[in-house]
Design goal:
By secondary structure, the protein is α/β, with parallel strands linked by helices. The protein is built from 10 helices and 57 strands. The strands form 11 sheets. It has a 29-stranded mixed beta sheet, with helices on one face. The structure holds 2-acetamido-2-deoxy-beta-D-glucopyranose (7 copies).
Length: 922
C-alpha cells in the first residue's frame, strides 16, 4: 500500500493544485473612516500580538479606510471588512505560512463598535488554543466569518447562532473544537458556505437533519468530524442548491444508503474518502448528474464499478483508490469527455483495459496500478490522450506498441513496472522529452540498450530499470540522474561516470568488471555527491584505494560479493556520513582499521566471508550506533572482547564460523536493544536526505539453519549467532534477559554446563540452536513457555532427564534432541523411567498464539524472495511520502520549506479546507 499511497497523495496534490486559485484584495477609493471606528480598531490592534508587523499601516495618523486589510463602505466610510488571515499571498504572490509569526493574542470587544462589519477573516492565525470568543455572536451585521485554522479550541459558543445573516461560516481546521449539539445553528437561514472540518460533531446525532434545513447551502465541509452515520432520518428536506459536500475522514462504518444520493442532485463535488464506508456503490449515484469530482478512495467498497457510471458525463476527477472493487473497468469511461484525473489503483479490478480509455482527450492523470488487470495495452488505448502527463500502469499487462510508435503524450511520470514491455527496448521512450520519473522494473526487457539512451536520461531524475535483462557496456556512459536503479540486469564494462547530480546508484547484480580503484579514483568522479552506491554482486576486483575523501557524501556503501582483495584502508575513516558498509564475500584480509571509529553514524557493518585473521578490535565498543555487526566466516581468533557489550543498539550480532575462543561474555545483558521486547517498527536505518529513494538494505543471515536474504525487514530481526567457534564454559545465565531476541545460535562450540534455567523468559525466541556442544543437565521446564519457537536443535550434547511436556517441545522432530543418550520422553523413542519423571510439571504453551505471531514475521517477508512491493514496507512508505511532498513543492515554488510530517499534515489539512470552488460563489 505504501507506494500507491504516495501516488495517491500526488494525485490529490495535483488535484488541489489544479483547483487552487489566487485572490488579491481590491484597493479602496478615497473616502474617510469615522473616528469612533478607527479608535475601536486601534484598541483591537493593541490586544493582538503581531510578530510579523502585518498591521503596521494601522496608525492613528492615517485614515483607517486606507489601512491594509481594512475595507470601508465607499459611500459611508464605515468599516465593513477585516481581512486578517495569517495565510495570505504576500507582495510576491507567495503563500506565506510561518505559524510562529501569525497574529495572536486577544480579540478585543471593541470589534462590537464596528456596527457595519460584515466580513471578518481571522483564519490561520494562532490564538493558542483559547476558546472562540462568544461576543462574536453579537456582531449582528456579520455575513462572512472565517475562524478556520486559527488554533481555537473548546466548545463552540452557541452565541454564534445569533448571527442570522451569516452566509459564510468557516470554523474548520482548528486544534480541538467540539460541539455539544448543533441546534443553535437552526437560525442560519441564509447560510451558503459552512466549514466545520475537524470539529468533533459526534455528540450531535441529528446533524444531517439540522443541516438539511439550510436551503441556500452551496458548500458543506464536514471532514474529520467523527461522524458515524450517513443515514438520513425521516422528514428530510432535500438540498436543491448544494454543490460541494465533503464528508471525508469520518467513521461511518456502514454502507452508503441508496437514498443518500437523492439528497442533492445539484452536487458538483462529493468527497467521501477515508470514511470506513462499506458495500457497493449504490446505483442512485447516477442521480448526481452534475457531478464533476467524485472521491471515494480509501474505503472498503466492494462489487463492480457500475457500467452506468458513464452517465456522469461531467466528471473531471474520479478517485476510487484503495477499495476492494472488483470486475472490469467499465468501458463507459469513454463517455467522460471532461475527465482529467482517474485513480483506480489498489483495487482488485480484473479483465482487460477498455480501449475506450483512449477517448479521454482531457486526461492528465491515469493511475490504475496495483490491480489484477491483464491483457494487452496497445496504441489504441492512448489515441486521444494528448494531455496525459502521469501514467501509473504497473500491472501484469502486455504493453504492446510498434517500435516506431510516436505517443500522443509527453509524460512527466511513468510507472510501468511489471508491465511486459519487452523483450525489445521501448524505443518510444526517446520521444518523451519531459519525463522526470520512469519506473520500468521487471518489465521483461532483454535487449541491448540503444545508443541514444544514456544521453536521453541525463534530464531524467529517477530511473528504475531493475530486474530486466538489459545489456550494454557502460564504460563510457556519463550519468546525470538523481536516482538510478539498474539492479539485476546484464550491464557490463567499467563502472559508469557520474555527474554531481547523481545521489543514488544501484548497479548491483550486473557484470561490471575491472579494478574498483578505477571508478573510485577517476578524476571525473571527483565532484560526485553520491549518497548511495550499491555495486554488490559484480566482478569488481583489485584493492580498495585511498580515494575516499572524494566520496564523503556516501551514506550507504555496498561492495559485497565481488573479488576485492587487500586490506581495508585507513582512509575509509573519512566516510563520516556512512550509515551502512557492506564488504562481505570478498577476499579482504588484514585488520579492521581503527579509523572506522570516525564513522560514528555507522549502523551496519558487514565484513563477513573474507579473510580477516585478527582479533575483534576493542574499539568496536565505541560504535554505539551499530545495529548490525556481521563478521561471520573470517579467521577471527582470540576472545570475544567485553567491549562488545557496549553495543547498546545492536540487534544482529553474527560472529559465527570463526576461531573465537574463551567464554561468552556475561555482560551480554547490556545489549539493551536486544533486552527490549520487539519494537521493530521504530527501528530504521538512517533517513536519507533526499526524496525518491527506494533503496532497501540487504543482509544475508542464517536465522534457522538456512541462509536467507533480508531486506528492509532486517529491522525486525533480533539475532545472535556465535556458532562454529571454539567458545567454552557455560552459557551465561545473563543471556536470558535478552527478551527481544528471536534467533539464538550457539551451536558447534565447546560449551558446557546447563542451559540457563530462565531461557523461557526470552519469550520472542523463534529459534534456538545449541547443538553440538557439551551441555548437560535437564532441559529447563521454562522452555515450554516459548510459544513462538518454531525451530529447536539441542542435538549432540549431554542433556538428560525427561523432555518437558508442552504443545511446543513435543512438536519438534526427534532429531532436535538426538545425540543426548540420557534424554527421554516424547518425541524421542526412549521412554522415561520413574526416577527420570519430574514431579510437578504440567503441559503449557499456547500454540494458537504462536502461529499468529509466526505468520506475522513470515508475512513481513522474513528473508524470502517476496515481490518487490512487499519488501519495501514502512521505510519505503516514508520515503515516497517525502517524494510526493517535495515534488509538490517543486511545482508550487519554494514556500513553507518544512521537513516534518506534522507540518506536512497541517499543510494538507489546509489544502483540504482550501475553499475549493467557493471563490466562484462569492
Ligand atoms: C477621490 O479623490 C479625487 C481627487 O483626489 C476626487 O476627484 C474624487 O472625487 C474623490 N472620490 C471620492 C469618492 O471622494
Ligand atoms: C462602491 O462599491 C460598490 C459596491 O461594492 C461598487 O459597485 C461601486 O463601484 C463602488 N464605487 C466606487 C466609486 O468605488
Ligand atoms: C496552538 O496553541 C498551543 C498552545 O499555545 C500551542 O502549543 C500550539 O503549538 C499551537 N498550535 C499551532 C499549530 O500553532
Ligand atoms: C427533492 O426535490 C426535488 C425537486 O425540488 C423533488 O423532485 C424530489 O422529489 C425531492 N426528493 C425528495 C427525496 O424529497
Ligand atoms: C546529447 O543530446 C544533446 C541534445 O539533447 C546533444 O546536443 C548532444 O550532442 C548529445 N550528446 C551525445 C554524446 O550524443
Ligand atoms: C543534469 O541534471 C540537471 C538537473 O538534474 C540538469 O539541470 C542538467 O541540465 C543535466 N545535465 C545534462 C548534461 O543534461
Ligand atoms: C511460564 O510463564 C508464566 C507467566 O509468564 C510463569 O508464571 C510460569 O512460571 C512460567 N513457567 C515456567 C515453567 O517457567
Amino acid at each position: 500500500m505504501g507506494a500507491s499511497f504516495a501516488t495517491h497523495v500526488l494525485f490529490l496534490l495535483w488535484f488541489f493544485a489544479a483547483t487552487f486559485s489566487l485572490s488579491l484584495f481590491k484597493a479602496e477609493s478615497n473616502i474617510s473612516c469615522i473616528e469612533k471606528e478607527k479608535q475601536a480598531l486601534l484598541i483591537f490592534k493593541k490586544g493582538l500580538s503581531d510578530p510579523r508587523n502585518a498591521l503596521s499601516s494601522w496608525s492613528d495618523q492615517v485614515d483607517c479606510c486606507r489601512w491594509d486589510r481594512v475595507h470601508c463602505n465607499n459611500k459611508t466610510g464605515r468599516v465593513t471588512e477585516l481581512h486578517l488571515s495569517g495565510f495570505y499571498y504576500d507582495d510576491k504572490s507567495l503563500l506565506s505560512g510561518d505559524y510562529e509569526k501569525r497574529l495572536g493574542g486577544e480579540i478585543s470587544l471593541s470589534l462590537l463598535k464596528l456596527e457595519f462589519l460584515n466580513y471578518l477573516d481571522l483564519s490561520y492565525n494562532n490564538f493558542n488554543c483559547t476558546p472562540i470568543p462568544s461576543f462574536l455572536g453579537s456582531i449582528g451585521s456579520l455575513r462572512y466569518l472565517d475562524l478556520s485554522g486559527a488554533n481555537f479550541s473548546g466548545l463552540i459558543p452557541h452565541q454564534l447562532g445569533n448571527l442570522s445573516s451569516l452566509r459564510y461560516l468557516s470554523l474548520g481546521s482548528n486544534s480541538d473544537l467540539y460541539v455539544d449539539n448543533l441546534r443553535w445553528m437552526s437560525h442560519f437561514s441564509s447560510i451558503q458556505y459552512l466549514d466545520l472540518n475537524s470539529i468533533d460533531l459526534h455528540r450531535e446525532v441529528d446533524w444531517l437533519q439540522i443541516m438539511s434545513k439550510f436551503s441556500s447551502l452551496l458548500e458543506l465541509h464536514l471532514s474529520t468530524c467523527q461522524l458515524d452515520s450517513l443515514k438520513p432520518s425521516l422528514g428530510f428536506v432535500n438540498h436543491t442548491s448544494l454543490q460541494v459536500l465533503d464528508l471525508s475522514y469520518n467513521l461511518f462504518n456502514h454502507e452508503i444508503p441508496n437514498c443518500f444520493f437523492n439528497l442533492s442532485t445539484s452536487l458538483v463535488v462529493l468527497k467521501l474518502e477515508y470514511s470506513l464506508l462499506k458495500g457497493k456503490i449504490p446505483p442512485s449515484i447516477l442521480n448526481l448528474h452534475n457531478l464533476e469530482y467524485l472521491l471515494l478512495s480509501s474505503n472498503d467498497l466492494v462489487g463492480k464499478i457500475p457500467e452506468s457510471i458513464g452517465q456522469l458525463k461531467y466528471l473531471k476527477y474520479l478517485d476510487l483508490w484503495y477499495n476492494s472493487l472488483s470486475g472490469p473497468i467499465p468501458s463507459s469511461i469513454g463517455n467522460f469527455s471532461y475527465l482529467e484525473g482517474l485513480s483506480l489503483s489498489d483495487n482488485q479490478l480484473s479483465g482487460t483495459i477498455p480501449e475506450s480509455l483512449g477517448l479521454l482527450s482531457n486526461l492528465e492523470w491515469l493511475s490504475i496500478d496495483k490491480n489484477l488487470l491483464t491483457g494487452t495495452v496497445g496504441e489504441g488505448h492512448f489515441t486521444e490522450l494528448s494531455k496525459l502527463t502521469s501514467l501509473y500502469l504497473s500491472n501484469p499487462l502486455f504493453f504492446n506498441v510498434s517500435s516506431n510508435w510516436i505517443p500522443p503524450f509527453q509524460l512527466d511520470v511513468a510507472y510501468m513496472s511489471y508491465c511486459k514491455v519487452g523483450p525489445n527496448f521501448p524505443t518510444w521512450l526517446q520521444t518523451q522529452k519531459s519525463l522526470r520519473v520512469i519506473r520500468m522494473s521487471k518489465s521483461e526487457i532483454s535487449d541491448e540498450v540503444p545508443g541514444w539512451f544514456w544521453n536521453w536520461t541525463s534530464n531524467i531524475e529517477v530511473i528504475d530499470l531493475s530486474g530486466n535483462h538489459i545489456e550494454g557496456d557502460m564504460s563510457d556512459a556519463v550519468l546525470n540522474s538523481t536516482v538510478l536503479n539498474l539492479n539485476s540486469n546484464h550491464f557490463k564494462g567499467r563502472m559508469p561516470q557520474l555527474s554531481a547530480n547523481v545521489k543514488e546508484l544501484n548497479i548491483a547484480d550486473n557484470s561490471f568488471a575491472g579494478p574498483i580503484s578505477t571508478f573510485l579514483c577517476l578524476k571525473r568522479n571527483r565532484m560526485n555527491k553520491l549518497i548511495i552506491l550499491d555495486a554488490s554482486f559484480n566482478l569488481l576486483s583489485g584493492e580498495l584505494p585511498d580515494c575516499w575523501k572524494d566520496w564523503q557524501s556516501l551514506a550507504r556503501l555496498d561492495l559485497g560479493s565481488n573479488s576485492i582483495s587487500g586490506g581495508i584502508p585507513h582512509s575509509m575513516g573519512s566516510l563520516v556520513a556512512l550509515q551502512t558498509l557492506h564488504l562481505e564475500n570478498n577476499n579482504i584480509s588484514g585488520d579492521i582499521p581503527s579509523s572506522l571509529q570516525s564513522c560514528s553514524q555507522l549502523e551496519l557493518l558487514d565484513i563477513g566471508e573474507n579473510h580477516l585473521q585478527v582479533t575483534i578490535p576493542l574499539w568496536i565498543g565505541e560504535m554505539t550506533s551499530l545495529m548490525v555487526l556481521r563478521l561471520r566466516s573470517n579467521g577471527l581468533h582470540g576472545h570475544i572482547p567485553l567491549q562488545i557489550c557496549q553495543l547498546s543498539s545492536i540487534i544482529v550480532l553474527d560472529l559465527a564460523n570463526n576461531s573465537l575462543s574463551g567464554t561468552i561474555p556475561k555482560c551480554l545483558n547490556n545489549l539493551s536493544a536486544l533486552a527490549k521486547p520487539d519494537n521493530g517498527g521504530s527501528i530504521h536505518f538512517g533517513y536519507l536526505p533526499y526524496a525518491y529513494s527506494m533503496y532497501v538494505e540487504n543482509l544475508f543471515l542464517v536465522p534457522k539453519k538456512k541462509q536467507l536474504e533480508y531486506f528492509d525487514n532486517v529491522k525486525f530481526v533480533r539475532l545472535i549467532d556465535l556458532s562454529s567457534n571454539n567458545l567454552s564454559e557455560s552459557i551465561p545465565v545473563e543471556i536470558s534477559v535478552l527478551f527481544g531476541l528471536h534467533f539464538l545460535n550457539l551451536s558447534q562450540n565447546h560449551l558446557t554446563g546447563a542451559i540457563p534455567e530462565k531461557i523461557g523468559s526470552m519469550k520472542e525466541l523463534e529459534s534456538i540452536d545449541l547443538s553440538r556442544n557439551h551441555l548437560s543437565g535437564e532441559i529447563p521446564p521454562s522452555m515450554s513457555n516459548l510459544t513462538f519457537l518454531s525451530q529447536l536443535d539441542l542435538s549432540y550434547n549431554s542433556l538428560s532427564g525427561r523432555i518437558p511436556l508442552s504443545t511446543q517441545l513435543q512438536s519438534f522432530d526427534a532429531l532436535s534432541y538426538t545425540g543426548n543418550p540420557q534424554l527421554c520422553g516424547d518425541p524421542l523413542p526412549k521412554t522415561c523411567t520413574v526416577e527420570e519423571e519430574p514431579s510437578n510439571r504440567t503441559p503449557i504453551g499456547r500454540i494458537e498464539d504462536h502461529s499468529e505471531k509466526y505468520s506475522f514475521y513470515i508475512g513481513l517477508g522474513v528473508g524470502f524472495a517476496v515481490g518487490f512491493w512487499a519488501i519495501c514496507g514502512v521505510l519505503f512508505f516514508k520515503r515516497t511520502w517525502r517524494h510526493a511532498y517535495f515534488r509538490f513543492l517543486d511545482g508550487i515554488k519554494d514556500w513553507v520549506y518544512v521537513t516534518t510530517m506534522v507540518k506536512v499534515n497541517w499543510f494538507l489539512e489546509k489544502l483540504r479546507s482550501c475553499h475549493l470552488i467557493s471563490e466562484r460563489h462569492r
